[in-house]
## 1
Amino acid sequence: MSFFFEVLVGGLLAGVMYSLVAIGFVLIYKASGVFNFAQGSMVLFSALTFVSLLERGYPFWLAFLLSLLIMLVLAWAIERWVLRKLVNRSPITLFMATLGLSYIIEGLAQSLWGAQVHGLDLGINDEPFEVFGLLLSQFDLFASAVAGTLVIILSIFFNKTRTGIALRAVADDPLAALAVGINLQRLWLIVWAVAGFVGLVAGLLWGARLGVQFSLSLVVLKALPVLIIGGFTSITGCIVGGLIIGASEKLAEIFIGPYLGGGIENWFPYVLAMLFLLVRPAGLFGERQIERV
Amino acid sequence: MLYREAGQFISHYRADQRLFRLRQDRIGFYLLLASAFVLVPYCGNDYWFSAILIPFLVLSLAGMGLNFLTGYAGQLSLGSAAFMAVGAFSAYNFNLRVEGLPFLLSILLGGVVAGLTGVIFGLPSLKIKGFYVLVSTLAAQFFVQWVFTNFAWFSNDSSSGVITAPPLQVFGLDLSSPAGRYLLTLTIVTALGLLAANIVRSELGRNWMAVRDMDTAAAVIGIAIPKTKLLAFAISSFYLGIAGSLWAFTYLGTVEPHGFDINRSFQILFIIIIGGMGSILGNFLGAAFIVLFPVLMSHIANGLLAGVIDAGHLENFQKIVFGMLIIGFLIKEPNGLASIWQTFRQQLRVWPLRY
């Protein structure tokens, strides 16, 4: 039984990492209705930038600030040259544009900083320790603490600040938001920059786990079932969805996997999300769509 | 001057329902077919057959498959490669396990199996829509790849799931030379292409477009949504399955499950974005672009910038240019290369006047 709980807790903590990527998605989807496939490459790009700056001898905080600045420039460029030109297009078109965007960002990241794997040490030791007879990883706990802090900061930002409230207005009804004088383009810039910041945090944590390398951009695919379960528009949903996916994926791998020949981690989350959709088409916390002709 | 419709009157319904209503278009199409079937095999060389023409034709076919689903029926899919894999592996197994089954028939059966798989993974689309359908196609992508990698039965217990092409014998003819493989591919693609052009202008094709444009409205006017969507998944996967068989048997010869990974799905999606969503011609233009673009890029890099750029950089550079092209097309020409061709044709019809 204690083994079961160990796997469960390990899975839950790993799920937090998925949530971090999913949060970046939700931010952009809420504010601009864009399903941002490039979130994964933004994670890669920011982490790669940070590591490369670190390797060139910049101190930690300066490297962090510079990477943030670069993500801001990226957000500006995306708003200026992609989103603004595609205003009022169908969501599918926007999705495909972000697919193109992910190619650009990945190519850019690798031609700027090279394609080799970089190690990243955040100075947290990853030795497991025991709580109530369960072995826990210190790093995973740190990651969940970061995710928790991030969610708190974001919800304060969304509920208390002027910009955050404007963002919620845009998410609710872009036309009405424009009519009351909200500057849509500035808000898009902000939200993409914030998503870049979330991407940087996710990139650092994932990078410390797996090494900073190309496969980081693939975490985007794992974030998708998380979004489906949590709902596309809810940050709380991201966390819950991430926990569900992380836990069930690890449990399935350990307890069902051996009967099927192993490796079911790769597809299990998608099938789970699919089954979930049949029961709750809008996810756990998503807004139900009402359709009119 | 030559491209005029003056004097071509339509006096029968049959004439009205032709694929090419303009006589010049018909002649052009026949000339194109004749040159593809006679001229090209006569003067092409092996490099062109194996490295350019065959992949071009197969990818066009795969593009058609995805275009049914995404371009016509409006269901986004990132699992095209999975259905290609199902087609290839089923065709391989039919050929292996059924004694004396003709090659063409096993490809066809492979397509049918792929179509049925498509229906299964299309089932969730009846309850969900939009981006949510993506997850079902992604499930197909990862699940299918896992099945073919993990269960050696599908690849006749070969190492790491590699399958090898059966002897390419059609009606007693040996078609294993590059020119033969080209002709085989061309015949199948032409037949299915003509079929596709007719499907999309039939009632089914129109229903697909209605569902794409607004499914609630389509349901209101009495289109059976479940049937329409599932048929889109079935026919799309059938085409993709056949394309998968051709990819494995006439293009590569041997293929492993990894050859049908998610990057292949992206590639096919790019074909229809660049070529044109909701257009049959677009698939060919997009596939030609996808096949020729890397060749062109490496020629430029070798010719003009020899020694300046190494292979790794070139690949990244290619990625960047590719991404830019996709965004550029979405912004400037959302209907892809096919719509550029249509505009050109329109201008040709009225030339030298402007309209």
## 2
Amino acid sequence: MGRTWDFLTATRGATRLHWTDWASYTYLFFGVFLMFFPVVWLVLSSFKTEADLQRYPPTFLPYQQQTVTVEGYDEPLPLFEITAGEYEGMILAQLRRVGLQAQMVDPAAPEERLRVAISDYEPVEQFSLATENYSDLFGRFSFLLYFWNSTFITVMATLIMLLTNSMAAFALSKYQFRGRTAVLLLVIGTLMIPQTVVLVPLFLIVSEMGMFNSLWGVIIPGAATPTGVFLLRQYMLTIPDEILDAARMDKASEWKIYWRIILPLSAPAIAVLAILAIMWRWNDFLWPLIVLTRSENFTLQLALNSFQGELQTQWSSLLAMTVLTLLPIAMVFMFLQQYIATGIASTGGK
Amino acid sequence: MAGTRGQGADAPAPSPTRDTAPGTAIAETAGATDPRALRGAGDGIALRVIAPVMRIIEIPMLGLQRVLGINRLAWVFLLPNLLLFGLFAFLPVILNVVYATTGGDNVMLADRPGIGAGNFTRLLDCANHLDPNTCREDKFWRAVWNTVWFVTLQVGVMVGFSLLTAIVLNGKIRARGFFRSVFFFPVLLSPVVVALIWKWMLQRNGVLNAFLDWAGIGGYNWLVDAQWAFAWSVFLSVWAHMGFYTLILLAGLQAIPRDVYEAATMDRASPWRVFRRITLPLLAPTMLVVLVLALIKGVQTFDEVYAFTGGGPGTATTFIIQYIYEEGFAGSPRLFGLAAAASLLVAAVLVVLTLVQLWVNRKSVDG
Amino acid sequence: MTHLKLLGTTALALGLAAPAMAQEIRFMCYSDGNECEVYDDVLTRFEAENDGVDVIVDVVPYQAILENLPIQLAAGSGPDMAKVTDLGGLSQYYLDLAPYVDRGYWESSFGDTLSWYRGADGGDAINGMHSQLTITGAFVNATLFEQAGVEMPADDATWEEWAEAASAVAEATDTPFPMALDRTGHRFAGPAISYGASILSEDGTPSLSDEGFAAFTAQFVEWNNDGTMARDVWAGQGGATYQDAAQEFINGELVFYYSGSWQVGRMDEQVGDFFDWQVVGSPCGPAGVCSGMPGGAGIVGFEQTEHPEIVAAVIDFLAQEDIYAEVTARTRNLPAHLGVAAAGVEFEDASPAAAAALSAFASDLPDVAPAAFRYQGYVNNRAMFGITAERVSQAIVGELSVDEAVERMASDLEAALADAQ
């Protein structure tokens, strides 16, 4: 397999770590930081309370103010560290705040009330995960139903798309027939108009076909994506025709050539396309929003966005839901990426 | 043969083995490559499920093959896809053309008065097309010029970084699978989440400014400054989509036969020369896919930037699809006709651009 | 695969069979807080009283109500009833409840808000129940005023006096922003009317370019550019995107925040003990008008429904004084029901600050100018809100001068009216 760096280091007489290696790793680790840090931060934020989320400056870890139960008071009282003035260095519990003054007590000696200026204290905070963001979700709506709807849509649309696209790509790359260029141009032509733009005509067609408020109304239009045909066709072009000729000599049917030869050899491209298709359908929002209006048909993305009201958004629930929606697709990716790995590594001609 | 001309010139064509069963023949022919391709992806549980289904389909397909002959069978392979496309991709576009010739704000075509090319003249009505303020639909032209800039920068930066990343990943790297996954990871995020994350990073009191303050550089109100908001939109879009193109390019790089490089080693060619003379030309078909897709997707950028800046400040990051979406769908009154006309204009420009690209690369397209 | 297919067909069958089932009512609802949950809960009582009726509350993103519902209605595939905010714009699809309900009770209970649902043609149909009334007004960080030692302007203070006071406070306390106003044409309309804009004259002629409107636009742009207004809010977004400044206010970075009554719950919860805040209503314009904008959402039935009598019964049930009072208390909204408003609402879990704020908003209602009431029910008001937000922002960031922006608003409005015919 053509490894550029391998080749480069070889000509320079194999020192163990060439500067290009250093540069590569530096670049890669910078990439890891840039690509992962925001996501890690998203996950951590999903454990913050609504109030903590709104806070400036943002903290990296979720914190909550520490409280203490003081004898004689029913509610737990918030704790503050006194930073200046008479009681500097003490940790006191606040009873109430009036204007710029706070009434506080020492938890150790709850009888005496102390007065502290609010500029002289800072809240005592501790690391604490707001797991209720997650647990509330399950009580609030039928998470499992939405999860099932999303999964069903994603799996069916992906399968249909992979099958039809790979068949079309096979025809467009391995046959000479009249109208091939026209079909190819037509396919590329549909790439030019994104779904966002034809929402209304598409909606009318789907309603006319009786697929409104049905999961199939999301699945079938979703499977008609031109990107896959184009991607697979370009990949299949690189498969040598001799293989097909050899198979034909052996009287293999065209269908067999398609699924026994072309499909396996296109595995890396198909894996990439599968990941894309899964991701598209899983994250799809605008289209399901218009086709699905009944809650029993909702997908996770619709449920997730129902936390956005006209005037307010419930960020804590929305973030927790986002993380939950992200998990399955991340797992699917981790699974599929091995196939890309074996695929890519082996088609290259090592 | 047509399919391999690009490669065949440099790589020795694998010789077909004729006296074995088809399955083995592939394994061996591709054995110039690696039989693991079959074992890794094709075989296993998936195959056991798929095989019976495929064998059942084979029966009618074989019949059709006898009736139609091999080349006309291509249409059978195309049929399911064309059917889906016809109904859910072409028909909406045709309806869009009809919408483009009508006015008013009614949804149903029957209720809409025809106004001929009225929507197009309204869009194109400008004293000076370079100055949006002189246009009747000033927002359309602002969006057009923003999109032109955006696409130029975004495609350039993204393809550049994707290629760099792919080359680095193609090298002798430990934990390559891990790094490859890392770069691909943002592709999995939905556009809204991408926008949300970076909005938090970049807002006035966001993480980046907190860091800059800490480093003593001092924060900046990024998203209120038109130029910076634009630059960050490009960044965000590159961040979110780079992994996809990296992966395609990586697949292309790995498909380049090793012996080509070995020959170059013999000739003591300089690395830059190897890159220019071997890597780039052999990568051309893949590069074409990347460029065509990146350009088209670039022009169609919408969700993530819309959720990120809402098109602001002012109209600094309003791109063409956002204009269409707002005119025809989100705004009030809903001008489906105007939006449809704008979308057709965009599609026409994209078709021309793509044809130019294909023409420039005609060798690798026709195979 | 067969397994999946099987389940798929079941799902399909379910989806198709559902509309055929008798007496199932679909209520499309969106939440700013807990509204839909509360409706769902209250409606179980209705279901208990009415055998065989099943009211299903579908909680959707607000975007679905705003953007998709009109298209679904046009295509004849809308729900039976919904909670909507584009009150006048959707009026052609509303079910007239009059044949099914007690007109006298409805008219005496909901009064003027009924006209918001009648659209351009007026008439005397009973088209919807205003479920939550909102009114715009200002929140002030009282603690910052105290720290700065600046006296809070009186009730009848003008916008300019407030701007001056807020700037003084911000300077003395090192607060980043003196003032902010939500980024929407709706919030903008209140002060614009106070500055003398007619917006919607009595004969129904809209205008976004008269002297008063231009005056406030110029003033607002100037405030954004000299740092009086938080520039982030209007300049940080594009199009007609909504943007509030609640986060800044909650973090104590904003002295004077012009928003509305729906923020009370959030302030109550999230400001907590951090500082004292209070509601001061809408400041006045130079002419002595001190108007805010009314608003809110309402529950409507749609003509397309197969069970108009049940839909009417459901809405009528929600409109009954005891139920309405309960929902209002639980969702912490201002009541549009005059009887409930007169009796007063005991808001659930509301702190004294929140209760005070809600009553401050309620007492501000009489100050609302007639033009503001008309504007809220105007069919094309969404178009006008959008135009305002878009063009004023462009003036703020310098893409257009104030005069150009006003001109563009006039021509945009003209085009919108022509297109909406």
